[in-house]
Amino acid sequence: MSNVKTFPPVIPKPGLRPFAISITVLNLFGYCYLGFEPAPITPIISVLTAYFAELAVEVALRTWDGARFRGGWRNLVNFLLPAHITGLAVSMLLYTNENFIVVAFASSIAIFSKVFFRAPIPGAKGATIHFMNPSNFGIAVVLLLFHDTVSVVQIYQFTENLHGWSDWALPAFVVCTGSILNGKATKKWPVSAAWFIGFFLQALVRSVVSPAQPLSFLLTPMTGFAFIVFSFYMITDPATTPNTRKGQIMFGLSTAAVYGLLSWTGIVFGTFFALCIVCAVRGAMMWVKAAQLAQAQQPAAIPQPVPAAAIAQPAQAEVQRAV
Predict the structure, then answer these.
(1) Is 119 left (phi over 0), alpha (psi -120 to 50) or beta?
(2) Quick one: pLDDT at residue 306?
(3) Do 243 and 191 contact (CB within 8 A), yes or no?
(4) Between 256 and 148, where is the model more confident?
(5) Which positions ≥6 away from 36 have C-beta within 8 Å?
């Protein structure tokens, strides 16, 4: 009998592998040609930190013997795909100048959020899922804690070295690939569609309420490349968005509405904070729904029969009083 332990294969979620490839190519193209401004070592530090955090969490929760990344290079690569995407997304959208510790902090917080922010899956006994978008949460926390020294990347860095037709070709390519990815693989295209519609509606309402801010000005963020990346590759995270079409539409519209409220009150970086708030509310609703379902499944109390002696004693007392 062989004593070699076998490990089940790690099967990535639909769309995860092409997403990881596309964001890697975008970063390589960005640093080689587009003119990404963060130091080239920034994505390396961010990704390696995400790798380490993901592996450390897995060993801490499942021990080394039960770690899912064991069993060969294929298992390891498939297991690290989410961490790879998270690390590159953080380094691509967050600008920390040369403060690499902050980038590492953002990546680690993003990975750890999948452990601390979990909610039960209604109908699946004992199963939980993380509800906070990891990379978005890491970026939002860093922007909140280090707002004096940290910012998001400037929108021009994605198309700084593009001119003429190429200035439109790259955004169009990202829109097409993102649409195909969300339409065919992840099935999350209603989230993006609702987010776009909701963003236009909140800008329209704000322009009516505050005529000093014209509609064209409030819609300017939609022309930035960072907005496109957020709309097709971040807000549509398969693990932290609803599965039903109605839920996806409500998720996208709610994020846009919260963004409008935050921007109206003067809060900057509203896209990241709005997505965090909506994810948190969705997680709370999952907890409430799971509690209601558990209460409804509890067996109803069966009425116990009354002993005959207990019925006879009051009857005898009534007879004695009558006599």
Answers:
(1) beta
(2) 57
(3) no
(4) 256
(5) 27, 30, 92, 153, 157, 158
Structure tokens at 266: 């003067």
Question: pLDDT tier at 316 (50, 70, 90 boundaries)?
Answer: low
CB proximity list for 248: less than 8 A, separation 6 or greater: 188, 190, 191, 194, 241, 242
Burial bucket for residue 60 (CB in 10 Å: 0-12, 13-18, 19+): exposed
Cα–Cα distance for residue pair 59/68, rounded to 1 Å:
9
Reported as a single tens digit per residue, the pLDDT across 156-194 is: 667 777 777 776 777 788 888 888 888 888 889 999 999
User: Do the beta carbons of residue 105 and residue 90 sit within 8 Å?
Assistant: no
- Cα 198 from Cα 213, distance rounded (Å): 18
Query: Residue 307's pLDDT band (boundaries 50, 70, 90)?
Result: low
